[in-house]
Write a structure and sequence with these properties.
Blueprint (H helix, E strand, L loop, with lengths): L4 E4 L7 H8 L26 E5 L4 E4 L5 E5 L8 E8 L6 E9 L9 E6 L13 E6 L5 E3 L3 E4 L4 E6 L4 E6 L1 E4 L2 E4 L4 E16 L2 E11 L18 E3 L5 E2 L2 E2 L1 E2 L3 E6 L2 E5 L11 E9 L4 E11 L21 E10 L3 E13 L8 E14 L4 E4 L2 E4 L6 E8 L6 E16 L8 E15 L7 E8 L2 E9 L16
Parallel strand pairs: 14-24
Antiparallel strand pairs: 1-10, 2-5, 3-4, 4-7, 5-6, 6-12, 7-11, 8-9, 8-12, 10-11, 13-15, 15-16, 15-22, 17-23, 18-19, 18-23, 20-21, 21-22, 23-24, 25-26, 25-34, 26-27, 27-29, 27-30, 28-31, 30-31, 31-32, 33-34
């Protein structure tokens, strides 16, 4: 990144060497140029204009938003002129921010005036300072890139000298789309690098650079044997350089990217990264001398899939690791109901089995078996289990990758108990397995942060009634992490 000002020379300073390299005579790669300039309607005024009377002593006029200043040197005007800056909608392809209408149009300046545009982080989303340009709208609606633009990284300004007033704007000549995105684990997004400028032959031995309807960027830069060829908006994507957080092709921790020329697909990791999130998906851009000019970055936030959708990126609450507790009742029915099971249970988050928003919980609790035949008693009638007991427990599964998460699960408790027939004293007591399925259920939560699971479910001659409530809500996540630097 340059800290000092750099002047970028554009046509009409380009002579036959440029035309040869663009037209294929001596170029070694395909030319992306000589495309039709984009022609757009003029912009619509936004708010009130800024006006100021400037005389022969010169002066400065600034837009209301502070983005554009017009410096008129002494001697540029012979008499007083009311100079105006009107913010207008930006119509140029690839435009950044608003446009500006300078008037009175047709004013003749004895000396060039300086237009100085500032830029900020928002203007750089998806691009880099090296690919910011200044363009003015011509009478046919096309947008001509200014020559002799000075880029000052330290001051974050673009400056150019001009002798005419018209509609002006900043534009992103080379950009990655989308410049940012939010994904859940395992989701994917397509990325494209777009080129929004071209070089067009305007007369014999001369060419000019114009804004175009943004198209897929070339992968082979225009080249020339002429080392004196000035720096032009002639760039190409290094299709072998697609990376995630600086690792070519990505990694399991931060996701993978696969590129095909100016296009790529990024696939988020199976879990939300604990650091360096948002992840920086990047690709290098080369110039016609095959030198790396800069890097384009798309910052992609990997969302905690269990966070409430309405509070994404700020004060996130991780709901998928929170325990659930409640009751499940099962009635075992033959021709008539024969027994019931009441279970008081806590569903505990199982980190070993959960992955990528698919949360799995194991059960711990107490089950009570009650025969509905009044002649039988069961001892013990209550059984308590914890994780690891193979004859009791259960599993609850919730798919938090969906806005309305589906859930399903089952639970069972079996233990050896003594049955006694109190109605028949001649009948000897006997041992048998007590308990059985205390939970089978399925349904859908209304939202990611829905705090309750409840319902009735029938399966295999049993009717299950259940109701569980989320406990707490998990630890609050920190606010959004800083955006990775290029």
């Amino acid at each position: 990144m340059r800290s000092g000002p750099l002047t970028r020379l554009l046509s009409p300073l380009v002579a036959m060497a440029m035309l040869l390299s663009c037209g294929g005579g001596s170029g070694t790669g395909p030319s992306p140029h000589n495309r039709e300039p984009a022609r757009t309607p003029v912009g619509t005024p936004i708010g009130a204009p800024v006006t100021q009377t400037i005389g022969s002593a010169g002066g400065t006029v600034a837009s209301t938003d502070g983005v554009l200043s017009v410096d008129i040197p002494a001697g540029a005007l012979a008499s007083d002129v009311t100079v105006s800056i009107q913010a207008v909608t930006a119509q140029a392809p690839g435009a950044s921010g608003t446009g500006y209408r300078l008037s009175p149009e047709g004013t003749t300046f004895a000396q060039p005036v300086t237009l100085r545009f500032s830029y900020d982080d928002q203007d750089l989303e998806g691009t880099a300072p090296e690919f910011l340009w200044i363009a003015s709208q011509q009478s046919d609606g096309s947008w001509l890139l200014a020559s002799g633009v000075t880029l000052d990284d330290g001051a974050r300004t673009l400056s150019v000298a001009t002798t005419h007033f018209s509609d002006w704007t900043r534009l992103r000549g080379f950009q990655i789309r989308p410049p940012s995105a939010s994904l859940k684990p395992t989701e994917s997004v397509g990325l494209q690098v777009k080129d929004c400028v071209t070089i067009v032959e305007t007369s014999t031995n001369t060419a000019s650079s114009y804004a175009i309807d943004c198209e897929d960027a070339p992968t082979e830069p225009v080249s020339s044997n002429d080392d004196e060829l000035p720096s032009l908006p002639t760039f190409a994507v290094d299709q072998t350089s697609w990376s995630v957080n600086g690792t070519k092709g990505g990694s399991g921790t931060y996701g993978f990217v696969a590129g095909n020329g100016p296009n790529a697909e990024y696939v988020a990791p199976t879990n939300t990264p604990s650091s360096q999130n948002p992840v920086a998906v990047s690709v290098r851009v080369r110039d016609f001398r095959d030198h790396t000019v800069s890097t384009l970055v798309s910052n992609i936030e990997i969302l905690p899939v269990c966070a409430p959708a309405a509070t994404r990126l700020t004060s996130l609450v991780d709901v998928c690791t929170a325990d659930w507790s409640g009751n499940s009742k099962s009635t075992i029915t033959d021709a008539t109901p024969v027994a019931k099971i009441d279970a008081q249970v806590t569903w505990k988050y199982d980190a070993a089995l959960s992955i990528g928003g698919h949360s799995v919980y194991y059960a711990e609790g107490t089950a009570t078996f009650t025969p509905l035949d009044p002649c039988f008693t069961v001892v013990p009638s209550t059984y308590t289990w914890v994780k690891g007991n193979q004859t009791a427990g259960g599993q609850l599964r919730i798919d938090y990758t969906r806005e309305q998460p589906p859930y399903d699960g089952e639970g069972v408790a079996l233990w050896t108990a003594t049955y006694t027939d109190v109605c028949d004293p001649n009948q000897a007591s006997f041992q048998y397995a007590a308990g059985g399925g205390w939970f089978v259920g399925a349904g859908t939560l209304t939202a990611l942060d829905d705090p309750s699971i409840a319902g009735t479910y029938q399966s295999g001659g049993q009717t299950f009634q259940f109701g569980f409530t989320r406990q707490g809500g998990g630890a609050a996540k920190a606010a959004r992490l800083p955006t990775p630097k290029r």
